[in-house]
Amino acid sequence: MNRMEKLIEAFRKFPSVGPKQAERFAMYVMRADPSEINSLIEAVINAKNEIKFCKKCNNYSAEDFCDICSDLKRDSTTVCVVENPFDIIAIEKTKSYNGVYYVIGSYIIPHYENNSFLSRMDKLIQRVKEEKINEVIIALNTTTEGQATALYIKKNISDYVNKVSRIAFGVPMGADIDYIDEYTLGYALKGRTPITDRDF
Predict the structure, then answer these.
(1) Cβ contact 185:171 at 8 Å
(2) Model-level pTM?
């Protein structure tokens, strides 16, 4: 395997990157100015060496506590449980949530015996107990693993928090009803909300 093939193969290891996209990445590297590539390499090395997990929520952070946990303007009585730090980025982009987060890291299936999952679960229970959390919002994927984990979380924290809720899911914006599968449509009907003037 020559050096170009090794470069393409390296890009293939990135999630969701196929052969053609890996080739385009490799070609970009070959055509780019050396200073630009050096900046990219430096950014990757610095991120890998300096970014760690927030001690409170497990988000990525350069400090002991991430920017969200350190922000006194956030509603610290509402915690949104997500699978990974990238879910936090997606939710933050909506500008519709002002609470704090907790990254659970993985799902109970097939990781029930995973010490990391159990450790983070214990830490979540302790946090709910000690910090007088009013509501825990579960924002996990709607897969079988996500559903099982959501139920497990609810069962273990319900005695220590006033409200356990889950983000609504169902029909995406702009979708045609007749193209939606019955499973998704069923959940959309169960999660229906009143129409207000603000919706228009």
Answers:
(1) yes
(2) 0.80
The pair of three-digit structure tokens given for residue 134, joined into one six-digit string: 């009013």
* CA distance readout (Å), 189 to 99, 142, 144, 169, 194: 27, 15, 19, 10, 12
Both tokens of 151, joined, read 């139920």
Q: Which domains does the chain have, with CATH numbers?
A: 3-50 (1.10.8.420), 53-166 (3.40.1360.10)
Q: Considering Cα of 54, then 116, then 15, then 5, what sign does the dihedral take?
A: positive
Asked whether the beta carbons of 133 and 78 are under 8 A apart, the reply is yes
| Residue pLDDT, tens place only, 123-174 | 999 999 999 899 999 999 888 888 889 999 999 999 999 999 998 877 777 7
User: Is there a contact between 100 and 76 (Cβ–Cβ < 8 Å)?
Assistant: yes
Question: What's the CA gap between 191 and 193, in Å, rounded?
Answer: 7
Structure tokens at 5: 């093939």
CA distances from 124 to 129, 146, 186 (A): 9, 17, 31
